[in-house]
Amino acid sequence: MENLALIESFSEFKDDKMIDRVTLMAILEDVFRSALKRKYGEDDNFDIIINPDKGDLEIWRNRVVVADGEVEDENSEISLTEARKIEPDYEVGEDVAEEVKLIQLGRRAILALRQNLISKIHEHDNTNIFKHFKELEGELYNAEVHHIRHRAIILLDDDGNEIIMPKDRQIPSDFFRKGENVRGIIESVELRGNKPNIILSRTSPKFLEKLFEQEIPEVFDGLITVKAVVREPGEKAKVAVDSYDDRIDPVGACVGVKGSRIHGIVRELGNENIDVINWTANTQLYIGRALSPAKIVSITIDEENKKAEVRLNPEEVSKAIGRRGHNIRLAGKLTGYEIDVIREGVEEDVELTEFSDEIEGWIIEELSKIGLDTAKSVLEQDVDDLVKRTDLEEETIVELMNILKSEFED
C-alpha cells in the first residue's frame, strides 16, 4: 500500500469531524510517530511531512554514514556500502535521508495505524465535547428524548451529543415520549474513560433558579436577585428574592398579576407549588416569612445551635407544618435553622417519644416525618387524613389514638 492510498481518507476525518488543519496534522504526526517507535524502537531521527489537504505524506529516516563493520546503532547509523546503494557518492560522516514507505512498516502496522488514527480523533472529539459542556454546568439546556430506559432517559441534542437524565433527576410526575423535547440544567459533566458523561437534571434547585432568570425579566436584568431556592421536586418549593431598588416589589414582580408570570414555571415543574418570599437579613422575620402562610405568635432563636422555637396558635400549626411536612422542612432548609413548633395556649402536651414503651419507634418516626411529634398534635388530626399522609394502616392509627387519649383521660 502506497502512502497516498492511506492518506486519501484523512480529508474525510477533517470534513466529518470539523477538525482544524493544525490539530489534524498534530494528530496524524502523533499516530505515525507511534508506528515508527513500534517498528524502529525510537522516532527521534525521523522527519514526517504531512499535507492533509492534498493527501501528501512523506516519512524520512535520517542516519549517519559509518565505515563498514562499525555500525553500532542501526537506527541512527548506516554502513558506507548500504548508503551507496541509495546514492553512490556518499562518504563516511555524511548524513543520509532515506524515504520510508508505509509498506515497510508491515500490513498489521498499517491497519493498527488507521485504527489508532480513528481512536485519536474520537478522543479529540470527546475532549472538546467535555470542555464545551463543562462550561455549561448549571445552565439551562434542551435536548430530545432518544431512548427511554428504566433508570434513565437518554437524550440527544442538535449536534447528536448524548445526554443522560437519571430517574432521580426527573420530577416524579414527568412523563416523556420518544422525540419529545426536554428542558433541564446541565448538572454535571465527567470523563468516564475517554467518553464524557453529561447529566441533565430537572430536580435541582438550580433548575428553578434558572427558570426564574429566563421567565422573569427583572431577574434576568439583575433588578431582582434570587437569594435562595429549596425544593421537594414535584411537591413544593420556596424561593427567597430581594431587590436593591425599593421601588420594585420582588415578590409581586416574580408572581405577576394573578400568578401570570410564575404560572409557566409551575407548569414546567409538574404543578410544583412555589412560595416566593421576600429575603431579609432579619432572622426572625425571615423564618416567619419562610413558614408562610402560617401566622406566627413569637419566635425564639438559638443562634449557637441554629435552632428556632416558633409559637403558633393551634389553628395555625397545620399550615406551618404543611402537607406531609413539606412546608416546615423547606422553611428549615431555606433559613438554615432547625424549626420546632410549639402550640400557644396548650398547657398540657406530651412528646410522642414518651410513649416509646407502648408505641413502636417506627410509628413515632412516621408521624414525625409529617411534623407530628406530640400527643395532642396527633389527636387533633383526622384518622382518614393520617392514613393518606402516612404509611400507617387505619387500624394502627386508631390504636395509637386510643393510647394517646388514655393519657389525658388519666
From TrEMBL:
CDD domains for the chain: KH-II_NusA_rpt1, KH-II_NusA_rpt2
Source organism of the structure: Nonlabens marinus S1-08
Entry annotated with the keyword RNA-binding: yes
Protein name, entry field: Transcription termination/antitermination protein NusA
Keywords of this entry: Cytoplasm, RNA-binding, Transcription, Transcription antitermination, Transcription regulation, Transcription termination
One GO BP: transcription antitermination
HAMAP family with a match to the protein in the record: NusA_B
One cellular component term from this protein's GO annotations in UniProt: cytosol
Alphabetical list of PROSITE patterns matching this protein: KH_TYPE_1
Keyword RNA-binding: yes
